[in-house]
Amino acid sequence: MVIIGGDAAGMSAAAQARRLRTEDELEIVAFERGAFTSYSACGIPYWIGGDVGSRDELIARTPEEHRKRGIDVRLHTEVTAIDLDGQRVRTRAHGAAGGAAGGPRGAEEWTGFDKLVIATGARPVRPSLPGMDADGVHGVQSLGDGEALLDSLAAAERADGGARRTLRAVVVGAGYIGVEMSEALIRRGHRVTVLDRAEQPMSTLDPDMGALVREGMTGLGIDVRTGAAVTGIRTDADGRARAVVTADGEHEADIVVLGIGVRPETALAEAAGLPLGDAGGLLTDLAMRVRGQRNVWAGGDCVEVFDRVTRRPRHLPLGTHANKHGQVIGTNAGGGYATFPGVVGTAVSKVCDLEIARTGLLERQAERAGLRFVTVTVEATGRAGYFPGAEPMRVKMLAERRTGRLLGTQIVGREGAGKRVDIAAVALTAGMTVEEMTGLDLGYAPPFSPVWDPVLVAARRAASEVRAQGS
Amino acid sequence: MVIIGGDAAGMSAAAQARRLRTEDELEIVAFERGAFTSYSACGIPYWIGGDVGSRDELIARTPEEHRKRGIDVRLHTEVTAIDLDGQRVRTRAHGAAGGAAGGPRGAEEWTGFDKLVIATGARPVRPSLPGMDADGVHGVQSLGDGEALLDSLAAAERADGGARRTLRAVVVGAGYIGVEMSEALIRRGHRVTVLDRAEQPMSTLDPDMGALVREGMTGLGIDVRTGAAVTGIRTDADGRARAVVTADGEHEADIVVLGIGVRPETALAEAAGLPLGDAGGLLTDLAMRVRGQRNVWAGGDCVEVFDRVTRRPRHLPLGTHANKHGQVIGTNAGGGYATFPGVVGTAVSKVCDLEIARTGLLERQAERAGLRFVTVTVEATGRAGYFPGAEPMRVKMLAERRTGRLLGTQIVGREGAGKRVDIAAVALTAGMTVEEMTGLDLGYAPPFSPVWDPVLVAARRAASEVRAQGS
Asked: What ipTM does the predicted assembly reach?
């Protein structure tokens, strides 16, 4: 069993297959072009911001730990070709020192497989604009990216006299990563400007909900500039980024962080003739087997997943899905049986104490899917109104006309807002109508919820709206 | 439309009926024997403990506010008989002053109805043991009870010299109310002993989970005595409680709080020949109409509700259900259509920062229902393990053998543990199997959850156990 990519999906698959099969039954080799395995890229903003003390805390399982469990991890080893007919992959070692695991530097060799797992992940979008590769422009996709950014920050923060300098940081993109990185940079004491092309930050929310996130970010002192299309990076004579250029002007920058999103890393798979979807991700069956293949599986950020609401494939890179994919792949490759049922599109994030969550479809996604729907937005507190710390949260809910089926929920608010989205995520998975949701028996006690949980308040309003609309 | 009982179920019904019908179309009269309407009895422990500053904060809507909306609220007016054939109720005013709303003190009169709503609530269990009615023995069911307890505490806390006295408080019963009252009394600075007959506190949890609550309570300095059957209250010459007596000895007490549970207040309904269930609660149809009646509805703590897991009626007094009942009754009585779908038995509570939650069936309840099941208990953190403040929580899950259907979930842990039970509550409502739950798309980000949410960790383990058991 050969695995390409040593992060969540690949190494979960390896670990699960190993649980089912001994080393005599199944040899497992994992190729990783970087230096780390099984790490949490989602934790990078918290490492940069100082919540997490060191890189190593983000590593769930080291190469040594995997090796102890009988998984042959080869670091600094890039797979450069997949030969499906020959059932083999070509690798090139480019390790700093090479050595036992990685082989001599630059050497190419072929490794045969009976079972192949493609878990090549995603790469951050870097628009091909002038200066995008300049010094001081950073992605935050891998632990290596995180280290480079931290080094760059540490160097820039050291002023000539030895005092700590406040930097001008520009974050390009106000999605999850952009928002989390803004908070991290603010916590390091810098001046932060966030640029986004969209009308509001968090375009994973509807604009009216994104506006609440803008308020929260502005309140933290983050300069949020929307409708700002970046046209390039201005560099100095040393090739170092000095400003981010937009149609409306320049934003001076000592450091630039790119949080524009990611694309599936599927060049290798494409070259091997494997099927890709509209978003460039590998297409798989329910058992995470690549379509048309018998012994090739794929999972994690390099695949497209089935959206249970629109019933179409989409690219949704998220660690929690990658881990589930790995679990499913490892079970199947190990001779068991498991399937991945798809996603409903749940996500949660925060910027300081403002919690941001969504599940299901936004208005524009529902429209694109051909759905007609009602939309309601309510404000309710997360605890009994009289309980100390009861803070308002905004809940937006979409329900299909006629059927009343829940289509999506967005929540923005303080403590307790974010994970409440799980109620809607489970209801969505179960295909519940908003009318059915009004009867949900949720945990109630004054420190935890009003008698009508905010999600139920929204469901009641939505159900009433569905009835009012008729057909 | 005549309503008996002016708290959650009754007044929600009144308010909802009024939304649907004008005063010309429907006259609404609500009789309340006490002095308050629409209050949160669940908030009383937090008022006693000082989280909530005043009684009035617990009142969601005053009699005046109801009257302004065209609901004729008559306080201090007890309904003493229901004449179903004559479609009328007999009332006795025993208000302090009587007056416009209440009628002259002691007067009895008959009021006719076209539609009747019985929302008489529940009364705290007071075992008929010596001394149970002594001064210094308090229930905490109504706002009046809360006021009496606060007065009693204030008087006892005032030492002779003017300094504040530390009291010896004994709480009888270690269920939700007992646990919440223990915390309240600890927060007032008193020495608290809790007595319960059961093996562990929180017998709404399985004993192994109750043991975690005991640890938490003991850690707060609460003296938890289980297996302690109370045989009476020792009083002094003035008839004031001085100690709680158990088979094993006496527990000296300056104040005694009863948290033994409640029974449906259905004497009036029973006298009128209305049908009661095994737990003494009124039996209704899905529209909350009393069985066999055309124009009589009942809701709140005086009814039995349909348990969606055991598929039998049970008594489950909780404000969140009472409000839903009121909503359903008001809609139906107002000429609309709504049903109450039943409960899955979700409850959440806390003792300081220890959160306690359950939904569905305990082991003994599942056995009693004739179910065979697997049980798993896992420990997992509520945030990514590397994120600051990631605290372990214990999740116990029951799933039916063969079908793998989720039967129940219990969670005990720190921040973020309690409301996670909602995930299981919705899954239970949807009839999901634990295998289906393993694929749930829940909110994931390091400050909110590990990649595998604790509930999913438990579901995975339970699914594996179901498979292992076979038939």
From this structure: 0.94
